[in-house]
Amino acid sequence: MTVSALPSRPQPFCGLDTMMPLPARILSVREENFNTRTFQLEIIEPDIRRAYRWQPGQFNMLYVPGVGEAAISISSDSEQPQLLEHTIRVVGSVTRAITRMGEGGVVGLRGPFGCGWPIELLRGRDVVIVGGGIGLAPLRPVVYHVLRHRQHFRRVVLLYGCRTPADRLYAHELAQWTAGGSIDVLVTVDNATPGWVGPVGVVMKLLQRIKVNADRTSVLVCGPRILNRVAAWQFLQSHVPPEQVYVSLERNMHCGFGRCGHCQYGPKFVCKDGPVFRFSDIADIFAKEEV
Amino acid sequence: MPKLQPAVGQHGVLPKDGLANLLRTLRQDGYTVMGPTVERDVIVLQPVSSTEQLARGLRDQQQPGVYRLKPADPDLFFQYVVGPHGPKRYLFPPIQQLFALHVRQGDFAFDAGPPQPPKLAFVGLRPCELAAMASMDRVFAGQSRCESDVYYLQARQQMFIVAVNCTHPAGTCFCASMNTGPQAREGFDLALTEMRGAFLVRVGSARGAQVAASLELQAPTAAEIELAELKLDQAREHMGRKLDRDEARHLLEQNIEHPHWDEVAKRCLACGNCTMVCPTCFCSSVSDANDLTGGGVSRTRLWESCYTHQFSYTTAGPVRSTIRARYRHWLRHKLCTMWDQFGVSGCVGCGRCITWCPVGIDLTQEIVALRGGSPIQPAELSPNVESEV
Predict the structure, then answer these.
(1) Is residue A291 part of a domain?
(2) pLDDT digits (tens, 9 = 90+) for A54-69
(3) Which residues contact A72 (CB under 8 A, 6 or more apart)?
(4) Residue A269 belongs to some domain of the structure
(5) Do residues B278 and A215 lie in contact, with contact meaning Cβ atoms separated by under 8 Å?
(6) Dihedral sign from CA coordinates of A132, A133, A136, A138
(7) Which residues, 6+ apart, have CB-to-CB distance to B324 below 8 Å?
(8) pLDDT at residue B389 greater than cutoff 60
(9) Of B114, B301, B314, the CB nearest to A251
(10) Would the pLDDT of B303 be above 50?
């Protein structure tokens, strides 16, 4: 079986040097849950703002002067590239500093970096999107793309899991996505709260509720490491070929273009060769510890 | 007698006192001349203004975890090989400011950008260094300008290289088996082979030919060229160590899980010395320093070692939490995955990681162990060459 090459990625924008950030203003902040917010950013320099393009699954390095940088995936609609959204969970000093900044604040931005989801290769196929927790953020641009070009895809299912109903990202949008039957959205929670009538349990339990046509399904996964592993294995067991399983991975990143070495994953740089990997490209190291 | 003007690939003979002439010419051409000097009992590369500052009459004794300088023939300059410094630290500085800025009226005001690269001439770079720079060139040249290291590439392009062929390899050297030495084949402007009373000079570039033309070179005799060849043949035979790089790559590809990694982990201190002296280690981190008045921020890039915990830190903890995994990552990167990443070797056989490892871990022996052989006892390894042609 031949597999066409992954699409080429948009190159990062740089001024004097790729390590110098572009200033971007926080236009709005939306609270997603108790520790996660979605920030809409606008690159201040108009020429760069107009020229800025990215692909679903790519990320930016966001910078707070005096604090540092963090790799954050772009979570908005890639066909409105000027409206850049980043969904940020507070986990460290940079994410906390951005969250404290709020509307009107200025952050530095470098990017876009990495290879995203293989949107072009999904045409005419069933697509199963699997997200866990904050992992839904880099998958949201895929959902937007599917909604814009619904006729290019067959059945599209989103399986999403989070800790509690109140932790759901984009809660106001999940219902819209499934409206009119355009895509099937199945949400499960680890801990139900009063009023929750949906499924309870780990994300992959949702697999029992859908029928997978192994010969025409592509799978996109982004979640914590355990979900990435379990999802990949279970779809492979359902006879989805390894060339059709895509996983987005997380590593420590400093530069974004395969220079600083931190994100090495065997022979790969997660920032440049990933963060989205085709399972068949990393099958030999996927289950190896501490590679 | 007409002045000898050797073309690229041709030879000339430079009398020993002509070395001062070479340094002067390079300085007049606007280069800061860097050469091997002795500092705190170690050979390091530093700016030099005269041949008096160059290390001379010294031999280095290098063994796992051992580096000593000893007196030797007072007339000869280059009886030692590489110390802990390479040219890497001048092309990719250990600490380098990326920019300085302050936030003003909701925008960034940049006070400084990356510094201008220096115009350097290196005298005394060894063939393994040239091979290491060829590897680094691939690392620092990205697919586009936005993925390239502009400072490195510019510094590299404007540097002048006077290589020195190695006639006195150290006990930790293995360039002959890595096919990177002891003779410089490419990537230099001039290459010297030291003989008693003179240097045999080989011209490697048009720039080198220009500089050579200004020196008082004499035509070499057939005997002189033959003597230089003989010295290099002898150096090849006296390499302290050897490594089959194709075999090493294959073994590391096949043995991600191998009990020997646990054995190395018992000895490795995860100090990171090997990464600091390696001429192809390129990992870095970035860090901010705040001006305490609250005004400005300076962002700096620093060399980083994959042996630290924070190197692979994510919110789920470090990816490589064990020394076993960190040593494995480093060795695989040097001998295996740099081929996949950049199509070059991450090891050039300079032996620094062996010499500067405080517990004397020897990568050539770790490869032997992965192959299933028993490591050679240190006493069996060839000591430094003591004979002199």
Answers:
(1) no
(2) 999 999 999 999 999 9
(3) A59, A60, A61, A62, A86, A87, A88, A95
(4) yes
(5) no
(6) negative
(7) A290, B261, B262, B264, B265
(8) no
(9) B314
(10) yes
Domain housing A187: 119-286
Question: Which of B256, B286, B341 is closest, CB to CB, to A291?
Answer: B256
What's residue B146's pLDDT?
A: 84
Residue A122 to residue A276: CA distance in whole angstroms? 14
**pLDDT at residue B315 in the model:** 87
Structural domains counted in chain A: 2
pLDDT 10s digits, B117-170: 999 999 999 999 999 999 999 999 988 888 889 999 999 999 999 999 999 999
Q: What are B337-345's contacts with CB under 8 Å, separation 24+?
A: B337/A264, B337/A266, B337/A267, B338/B135, B338/B280, B339/B249, B340/A267, B341/A258, B341/A267, B341/A269, B342/B135, B342/B138, B342/B139, B343/B138, B344/B134, B344/B135, B344/B138, B344/B139, B344/B280, B345/B131, B345/B135, B345/B178, B345/B245, B345/B280
Q: What is the rounded CA–CA span in Å between residue B180 and residue A75?
A: 48
Look up residue B151 and give its two tokens: 């400072």
Q: How far apart are CA B181 and CA B132, in angstroms?
A: 11
For testing contact with chain B, the best of A11, A13, A18 (most B CBs within 10 A)? A18
Residue B388: pLDDT band with limits 50, 70, 90: very low
Q: Classify residue B389 by its DSSP letter.
A: -
CB contact under 8 A, A16 and B329: no
B373 min Cα distance to partner chain A (Å): 25
pLDDT for B385? 43
Chain A CA closest to residue B292? A66
Going from N- to C-terminal start, the domains of chain B cover 11-94+114-237, 245-283+313-380
Q: For strand A106-113 and strand A59-64, is the pairing parallel, antiparallel, or unpaired?
A: antiparallel
Query: What value does the mean pLDDT take over residues B174-184?
Result: 96
Contact B276, B86 (CB under 8 A): no
Whether A129 is covered by a domain: the verdict is yes
Tell me the two tokens of residue B276.
């600091």
The reply to whether A64 and A124 lie within a common domain is no
* Contact criterion met (CB below 8 Å) for A3 and A246: no
pLDDT at A257: 93
How far is the C-alpha of B122 from the C-alpha of B205, rounded, in Å? 15
The ipTM is 0.92
Average pLDDT across each block of 10 residues of chain A; the chain has 291 residues. List them in order. Answer: 51 80 96 97 94 95 96 97 95 95 94 95 97 98 96 97 97 90 94 96 95 97 95 96 97 94 97 96 92 93
Query: Which residues of chain B lie closer than 8 angstroms to A17, CB-CB?
Result: 98-99, 113-114, 150
DSSP letters spanning A43-65:
ESSHHHHHH----TT-EEEEEET
Q: Give the chain B residue whose CA is nearest to the CA of A9.
A: B143
Residues A273 and A165 in one domain: yes
Q: How many CB pairs under 8 A join A and B?
A: 130
- CATH number of the CATH domain containing A83: 2.40.30.10
What was the pLDDT predicted at B104? 86
